[in-house]
Amino acid sequence: MLTVMNLKKQYRHRTSEPGAGVMGISFDVPERAFFTLLGPSGCGKTTTLRCIAGLEEPDSGRIIIRGDEVYNSDTGRITPVNERGIGMVFQSYAVWPHMTVFENAAFPLRVAKRRRYSGKEIANRVKAVLEMVGLGGFEKRPSTMLSGGQQQRLAVARALVHQPTLLLLDEPLSNLDAALRHQMRSELKRLQKDTGVTTVYVTHDQSEALAISDTVAVMSKGLIVQVGNPTEIYNRPNTEFVAGFIGTINLLRGRLETDVNVPGIGAVETRLGPVHCSFMTSAKAGREIAMVCRPEDIVLVRADSTQASQLPKVNLFQGVVVESLFAGETTEYVIEMEGTCIRVHSRFDSALVAGKQVFIQMSPDRMVAIVEEGQYAQLSDDHRRTGT
Ligand SMILES: Nc1ncnc2c1ncn2[C@@H]1O[C@H](COP(=O)(O)OP(=O)(O)OP(=O)(O)O)[C@@H](O)[C@H]1O
Ligand SMILES: [Mg+2]
């Protein structure tokens, strides 16, 4: 439904930071899919969306929407915004304050260039789309007399009213409070599934991206670092950057002992001793390896408990509790082993106080090796240096 090939757009304003924009990205969005661009502020998400919409002229690349080439830098083809069949909700939501709910939603039909809509047709379409977003009966209300969430829904209704081929949503929930964001998240997902409209969604909120998307593309500094479904992105990050950006991680470093062919388990020599972990890319013995493990994937037991003797011996380490932070559903424990601190999320255990001896065990399947290459290694190095 949407193909973006080698899209480049560099901003060259005198105040722009070097490399600002997008530096050559490619991705495909199948029909009816919910595709999310996820990344930190300034990584190029809005730039990408604006290029797809035709609001920004790229430097180079190709963009194809439902078989129509809307942009090609080689042939010079550029289809204007209003001929691309796109519905868009912008980062800071804009409903027109001087218009009623009805007129806001009807606006795209009134100004449509591709065809004329009769008054009756406009009334029918607006009614249907307002019902769909839960604003049925609000037609006559001035749009300023809506709550934040309702205004957001109105912006979505307006983007859907002309039945776009492609829906582009740029952080549409960013102005809402946490509870409403949560609710709107499920509503958006339902709406997208009901209408079947192919959607490109932009957010810097990782939990939102994981919850709502069929496919997530993680961006950093104008590049796509990893594309996958939410569980792949979460469980099999391909760089330290992705691992760290999507939730809390533990990071261990070491040197690979023997060659590994993928997919497979390899042993990495660390200051704690050998650690077994899963490899997604083949690697040669002697390579420096980073390993990541989620705090909730680590088993924690008291050293003096009977469970301790039943734990698998692989990736089993003894340590001491240095901190415990009660957070309701789980408790975050910080465990120190040979000067290395590991975070573990576990059920609250009142006996696990600071100073207590414990064992931790990490399944090799849940310990992911990262063999970084070329630009991606550089990328995550930069992020480490800047502490992001
Ligand atoms: N019109 C512009 N002129 C010059 N530089 C720009 C312009 N728009 C964006 N940039 C720069 O390009 C980079 C990417 O911006 P973009 O708006 O795409 O980021 P983003 O990923 O959407 O970030 P956010 O999450 O903060 O919205 C940033 O460094 C930004 O400062
Ligand atoms: Mg943005």
Question: Outline of this structure?
Answer:
The chain has ten helices and 21 strands. It has 388 residues and is α+β, with helices and mostly antiparallel strands. A six-stranded mixed beta sheet has the order 7-8-9-3-10-11, sandwiched between helices.
Q: Can you describe what's shown?
A:
- With 388 residues, the chain is an alpha+beta fold.
- The protein has two domains: 2-235, P-loop containing nucleotide triphosphate hydrolases (Rossmann fold, 3-Layer(aba) Sandwich), CATH 3.40.50; 240-385, Nucleic acid-binding proteins (OB fold (Dihydrolipoamide Acetyltransferase, E2P), Beta Barrel).
- The protein is 26% helix and 33% strand.
- The protein is built from ten helices and 21 strands.
- The chain has helices at residues 45-53, 101-110, 119-132, 148-160, 178-195, 206-212, 230-235, 240-245, 307-310, 374-385; strands at 2-10, 21-29, 34-38, 60-65, 68-72, 77-78, 86-89, 166-170, 198-203, 215-220, 223-228, 250-256, 264-270, 273-279, 288-293, 298-302, 316-326, 331-337, 340-346, 357-362, 368-370.
- A six-stranded mixed β-sheet has the order 7-8-9-3-10-11, sandwiched between helices. Strands 2-1-4-5-6 form a five-stranded antiparallel β-sheet, covered by helices on one side. Strands 14-13-12-15-21 form a five-stranded antiparallel β-sheet, with no helix packed on it.
- A hairpin with a 4-residue loop joins strand 5 (68-72) and strand 6 (77-78).
- The model is unreliable at 374-388 (pLDDT under 50).
- Adenosine-5'-triphosphate (ATP) binds at residues 11, 13, 16-17, 20-21, 39, 41-47, 91, 204.
